[in-house]
Amino acid sequence: SGKLRPLATDWGRLVLQKARISELKDHLDGEVTLQGWVRHHRKSGKIQFIVLRDGSGFCQCVLVKSEVDEQIWERARQLTTESSLRLIGTVQQNPRNQNYELLVKDLEIVHISEAFPITPKEHGIEFLMDRRHLWFRSKRQWAILRIRHTLVKAIRDFFDERGFTLIDSPILTPTAAEGTSTLFGVDYFDEQAYLSQSGQLYLEPAVAAFGKVYCFGPTFRAEKSKTRRHLTEFWMVEPEIAFAHLEDVMQLGESFLKHLVQRVLENNQFELKELERDTTKLEAALQPFVRMTYNEAVEKLKKLGSDIQWGEDFGGDDETMLTNEFDQPIIVHRFPKEFKAFYMEPDPEDDRLVLGMDILAPEGYGEVVGGGERASSIDFLNEQIAKHELDPEPYQWYLDVRRYGSFPHSGFGLGLERAVAWICKLPHVRETIPYPRMLYRLKP
Ligand code: 4AD
User: Fold this and answer.
1) SS3 sequence, the chain?
2) Pocket, ligand 1, Cβ cutoff 6 A
3) Which residue minimizes the CA distance to atom 27 of ligand 1?
4) Which of 57, 64, 371, 418 could be a cystine partner for 21, CB 3.0 to 4.6 Å?
5) Residue 77 has what pLDDT?
6) Domain spans, the chain
7) Average pLDDT by consecutive 10-residue portion of the chain (444 residues)?
8) ipTM of predicted complex
9) Topology adopted by domain 11-111
10) CATH number of 127-431: 3.30.930.10, 3.40.640.10, 3.40.50.300, 3.30.70.260?
11) pLDDT at 2
12) Closest C-alpha residue for ligand 1 atom 24
């Protein structure tokens, strides 16, 4: 019974019957064609084990010498790591670990890979980053980027289901949104342009047309600091809501983050396990968030040993210290105006403060969300533009929001990569995006 299949398989015809590894449970005891790459290949006497990956998952494929044609057996013996191939076999469930496996009947090599540079041994980070285009074939990087994908979909669903209209903001802009020190300049014919740091200035006029809007796209900051939290190109989702106040966006931010965590817990158990993520820690984000004012946070930090002074922004270490105190995320609100953006609404109860808020992720991750209430008075904004030494002329269109039916409005921005780093519990944001851009890193 052993020699199951004639050698001349019509592979072209079989393409239509091919399955993906993630669907194998639907084909138990059935025959399928898989196409993919060799992750590992091990020979053990009269059995060969091929761990195949096809982008949807990983699957052990077993070749038993006595059950396949000798030519197939010999063909399989040539396989190297990352060789591409097609396999036909029967789907079985491994009684020990319940995983779905393929008992191979036929095998076609598509390409024998050259020696793959990334091996199971430890590699330095620069070596891996130079080979990012190959590195993300590894199981861990694959798991991270799959969770990123879940988050992107969850972000869109969250706002789409709540009546927000997507307003794409431009990437080439004439002005700064978040301070002039982190602008990337671009020659724009005879003018100076900059890569967008945030879509917010473009959402504020749009919210007067659509009520609730969001943008979601790449943003750019010429960050000269090399930290585990900073990229020069990162994705930000920014909702903006008409007639909303600080309290409204604090609540929205909290339910938004809960929704994101919930989605990943529902969809990515396999990936979280691969990343050895302690999901009980992640579930803490489903509890009510901690809230504190900037003033309270500074007091707390001083007690914890930070040398922060009132009026200073938190450093990365301060955020880590603060978030290590609680299992849930922390919303810090009402900051000194000195270090916040020019567009923030002053606090009616303390004119040293503005109605901003940041959400800090637990386990040392720090700021993932920044936002607040926007100033609605044109006089106040003109003063602020002067104070921040910005040229008022290019902001006139933005000030129109305050000329024609001004209204309170609020919003925030979530950095996707910081959210991925926290949810996956990664040591650095560089692993959260397919092709990271950082200080000294523009390749591949
Ligand atoms: O706090 P930020 O600078 O806020 C804004 O840009 C507002 N205009 C958003 C708004 O209210 N519509 O940035 C928002 C978030 C941060 O909390 C962080 O998650 C992320 O963007 N972020 C970065 N992520 C990675 N690398 C960087 N260099 C980042 N800078 C900000």
Assistant:
1) CCCCCCCCCCHHHHHHHECCHHHHHHHCCCEEEEEEEEEEEEEECCEEEEEEECCCCEEEEEEEHHHCCHHHHHHHHCCCCCCEEEEEEEEEECCCCCCEEEEEEEEEEEECCCCCCCCCCCCCHHHHHHCHHHHCCCHHHHHHHHHHHHHHHHHHHHHHCCCCEECCCCCEECCCCCCHHHCCEEEECCEEEEECCCCHHHHHHHHHHHCEEEEEEEEECCCCCCCCCCCCEEEEEEEEEECCCHHHHHHHHHHHHHHHHHHHHHHCHHHHHHCCCCHHHHHHHHCCCEEEEHHHHHHHHHHHCCCCCCCCCCCHHHHHHHHCCCCCCEEEEEEEHHHCCCCECEECCEEEEEEEEEEEECCCCEEEEEEEEECCCHHHHHHHHHHCCCCCHHHHHHHHHHCCCCCCEEEEEEEHHHHHHHHHCCCCHHHCCCCCCECCECCC
2) 177-178, 198, 200, 221, 223, 230-231, 234, 236, 238, 367-371, 411-415, 417-418, 429
3) 230
4) 57
5) 95
6) 11-111, 127-431
7) 49 66 93 95 95 96 95 95 96 94 95 95 95 96 98 98 98 89 94 96 98 98 90 98 98 98 98 97 97 97 95 93 95 95 95 97 95 97 92 93 97 98 97 96 93
8) 0.99
9) OB fold (Dihydrolipoamide Acetyltransferase, E2P) (2.40.50)
10) 3.30.930.10
11) 41
12) 415
Measured by CA distance, the residue closest to atom 18 of ligand 1 is 415
